[in-house]
Amino acid sequence: MNIDLKSFGIGLVTGAVVMLVMCVALLLAAAWAINKQNAAKLGPAPAFCPVVGDEAVSRALKPIRQKFNVPAMAAAVVTSDGIKYVGAVGVRKRGTEIPITLDDLWHLGSDGKAMTSTLIARLVERGQLRWDSTLAEIFPELAPQMHPEFQKLTLLQLLSHRAGLPENVDLVRFLGDDAPALRLRVVREGLAKPPQSTPGTKFAYSNVGYMIAGAIVEKITGQSWENTISNEVFRSLQMKSAGFGGAGTSGQIDQPWPHTEDGSPTAKNGPDVDNPPVMGPAGRIHCSIRDWARFIQDQLRGARGESGLLKPESYRKLQTPPFGGDYALGWRVVERSWGGGTVLNHGGDNTMNFANVWVAPKKNFAVLVCVNQSGDTAFQATDDAVGAMIELLQKQSK
Questions:
Q1: Which of 38, 73, 6, 26 is nearest to 367 (CA)?
Q2: Is there a contact between 339 and 358 (Cβ–Cβ < 8 Å)?
Q3: pLDDT mean over 256-273
Q4: Number of H helices, E strands in the chain
Q5: Which pLDDT band holds residue 139 (cuts at 50, 70, 90)?
Q6: Is there a smaller number of Cβ atoms within 10 Å at the N or the C end of the chain?
Q7: What is residue 284's DSSP assignment?
C-alpha cells in the first residue's frame, strides 16, 4: 500500500487542550502534585535505550524516542488474527536504567471510552438496556429532579457526546473511593441543571457523559462499573492485566512511571496518581500493550464483520457516528487513504501518560502506541510511531 503521510496525521489540533485526546485530569491532592520547582531541566535523550520484543519494532521506535526524548514507548500492530508485531523501548522512569518490558502496564486514558461503550453494548444485546433508553426510564426515582430536557436524553446521545453536558465536573467535590455513590451523585446533581445545548443537537466532548454511563451500568447490573467491565469485557477477552488507576507500587519503579508534559517524572507514582475513581468509565483503565491489543483485535474483527465479543450490529452501532459528524461511541471515524477509506481513531491522556490507536478495517490492521509521558510531545511521538508501524507493514507486504 502507498502511505500518504500527509493524510496519516491524526487530524486534530495538537496540544494539551485537544478534547478528543485529553481525558482532562486534575491533579487534586498533594500526593498527585507535580514538583515542578525541583524538576531538573531535561537534557538530550540518553544513549542508553533498552529494547524488548520484535526487532523491527524496536528498530523503528528507537529513533522516535530519541527525537522526542520520551522515557519509554510501546507499540503493537494487530490484524484480525492477533498481534503481528509488538515491541517497546526505553526506561520506566527518566534518570534510571530500569528497562521497560512487554508486560508493563500502560495508562489508556480516554481510549477506555470504547471499552465502556462495548460493555453497554453487551447489556443492550441482553435486553437490559436499549440504545434509545432515556435517563428518566433508567433512573425513574431521580426523574422528577432532572431538568425536563435531560429526562428525554437517550443512551445513544450520551455515548456520542451529544448530551448537552459539560466536559468535566469539579472533581474536587467528587473525591473518594466509593465510586458508584459518587457517580450517582453526578447523575443527581449534573442532570438537575439545564443542558448547555439541546440534547441530540450538538457535539460536545464530555467526560461527565461517560461517568453517567458508568452509573447506568451500576443501576442496571447492581454491581460497580469496575466489576462489571472486568467480568464482561476484560475476562471475556482474556485481558488479564487490565485494571484501574495509576500503575505500579507507590515509591517503586515496578511499572512505567508517569511523566508530565515537559518530560519530568511526577513526584509520586502508584494507584492514586490518576484521575479520581469517579472518572473510571471516562478514562482510568490500564493494561499491558498486548492486552490492549486483544481489545483492539476484537474491535477490528467486528468492524470487518468477523466473529467477536459482540453481534455484528453492535459493532456497527459502536463504530458509526449516529448523528452525523465524525464521533461514534468511543471512536472517532475519519477517512485516510493509507487505511483504504474509513478508519477509527482515539487518543487518551491523563496528563501523565499518552495512548494512541488507529484501526483500518479495510486493510485489516490496527496500530496502538503508548508513551509514559503526557502532552503534545508525547502525541507527536505516538503519531510518528504509528506512521513507522504502517511503513513496516508496507515493507513486509512487498
A1: 73
A2: yes
A3: 97
A4: 13, 10
A5: very high
A6: C
A7: -
Model pLDDT for residues 216-227, shown as the tens digit of each residue: 999 999 999 999
Confidence of residue 206 (pLDDT cuts 50, 70, 90): very high
66 pLDDT higher than 80: yes
- Encode burial over 41-57: b for 16+ CB neighbours within 10 A, e otherwise: eeeebeeebbbbbbebb
Fold of 5-40+48-111+287-397: Beta-lactamase (3.40.710)
What gap in Å lies between CA 269 and CA 279, rounded to an integer?
Answer: 18
**Gap between the Cα atoms of 142 and 380, Å rounded:** 44
Q: Which helix (H) or strand (E) holds 387?
A: helix 375-397
- Per-residue pLDDT for 103 more than 50? yes
The mean pLDDT of 242-269, rounded to a whole number, is 98
Q: What is the DSSP string of 121-158?
A: HHHHHTTS--TT-BHHHH-TTTGGGS-HHHHT-BHHHH
Strands (E), the chain: 51-53, 72-79, 82-90, 105-107, 243-244, 285-288, 332-336, 341-349, 354-360, 365-371
* CB-based contact 85:392 (threshold 8 Å): yes
The secondary structure element, H or E, covering residue 182 is helix 179-190
C-alpha torsion 76→78→82→83, nearest 10:
-20
pLDDT tens-digit readout, 303-325: 999 999 999 999 999 999 999 99
CA-wise closest residue to 154 among 140, 179, 137:
137
Residue 112 CA to residue 279 CA, distance in Å, equals 11
User: Would you say 372 and 6 are in contact if contact means Cβ atoms under 8 Å apart?
Assistant: no
